[in-house]
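Worked Example 4.2. Consider the chain below.
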Amino acid sequence: MSHTPSAPLSIAPERVGRIIDVLSLISVGEFSSERTTIDIRDQDELAALEETLNIFVRELASTRREHEEALTRLATSHRELEEKLATIDRQRDAIRDLSTPIIELWDDVLTLPIVGVVDTQRAMEMTERLLRRVVQGKARCVIIDITGVEVVDTMTANHFIKMVGSARLLGAYCVVTGISPVIAQTLVQIGVDLREVRTLGSLKEGLRDCFLHLNGPGASAGPHR
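Applying the procedure from the previous section yields the following structure tokens:
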């Protein structure tokens, strides 16, 4: 059986050049339909390749748009998450300030009323804030009031002792007030030595004691505002 060879396909050079141009454009990220769509005019064997290339470019452009949209959504989510984390940090700082306020009761007299449980982390934060206020305000007296602390164990008592010692190193006279009879019995039972710490029953007594300290030898006639 004889086979008649088909006539060679005659392709205009500009059509091949157009295909090359489209491939070059998409290789550098250019997917605009105006520049990457091949206008098919001749329905020949090359037309199938041109149409396939058009479909490929459209799908590639669609995939890239979806990818860019996903990146935009991801960036937006990231910004929103950062804003929420920043808000949480601000709220945490506000809660910490509210839970451990440092109040100036009188000239040169600061008080730190403590409420709730005192763990190591909270004790460190309270001590840091207290010492910073002592330095900033040049406070001469500090009253640490533990009326709102229901349970004092050995670790909690040691936190207070260290807090008092740190304030003393900065030159502040320190008083611990608000020790209830139950806490006093507990401290005696667990053997906590508070002989180096000035302790009084109430905040009022602590403030009076600070006045006596401020009005000692060489001090002014009395506390004033």
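Residues 45-99 form the longest helix (55 residues). Confidence is low (pLDDT under 50) at residues 220-225. Compare this with Example 4.1 before moving on.
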